[in-house]
Amino acid sequence: xxxxxxxxxxxxxxxxxxxxxxxxxxxxxxxxxxxxxxxxxxxxxxxxxxxxxxxxxxxxxxxxxxxxxxxxxxxxxxxxxxxxxxxxxxxxxxxxxxxxxxxxxxxxxxxxxxxxxxxxxxxxxxxxxxxxxxxxxxxxxxxxxxxxxxxxxxxxxxxxxxxxxxxxxxxxxxxxxxxxxxxxxxxxxxxxxxxxxxxxxxxxxxxxxxxxxxxxxxxxxxxxxxxxxxxxxxxxxxxxxxxxxxxxxxxxxxxxxx
Length: 258
Description:
Largest sheet: 5 strands, antiparallel
Number of domains: 2
Distance between the termini: 32 Å
Structural class: alpha+beta
Radius of gyration: 23 Å
Strand content: 15-25%
Shape: elongated
Helix content: 40-55%
Number of helices: 7
Number of strands: 8
């Protein structure tokens, strides 16, 4: 029970492109590291405070910003399908994060330093918060992509099962047909005797997902995605159409596939 509740918490608080507990913990470590750095350098006038309250000040601000950033980044990196350029998503997410968060920072500064903000001070405040937001979002995205690249250096075990005529090709999809699997690859199609569940476990290392009880699809194999009448269909590079069941539709929407 406790394990399930912890997994729910991880899913709730995951930062942007992160999908698991490891990604959540990476985001937390980055946030805490940033709080310590800001405290040590006395950023944005916090040097006037002694070290203990300074750490508490930055720790509180960074944690609040990280939780709010989890919602913002989830939308821009997992739900919104446009734009595809990562730098534009970072810019948009940072702006959406910094505008309301500037209010939090301003209020915290009033409480901690007794600051008084004039109308002319608002652009400087928003600019400072936006700068930090861009840095935090970018660092999280880069660290996450680096971790994905590192985790994918091992070739998928499933590639060893490809028939000789398909060896060296890209696996686009695996479709269950009775006791067999139809392999959709860049070199054509073929059948092998295997269960889909076993194949999915051996496909780890290739970015993809199960989209139906009878289909696993690689992310790079999708040529088009269509939604209609409450159902979605993925068109692959070889022209095959993979149905998306409601069981998996929500996850695919979060990933930006449909």
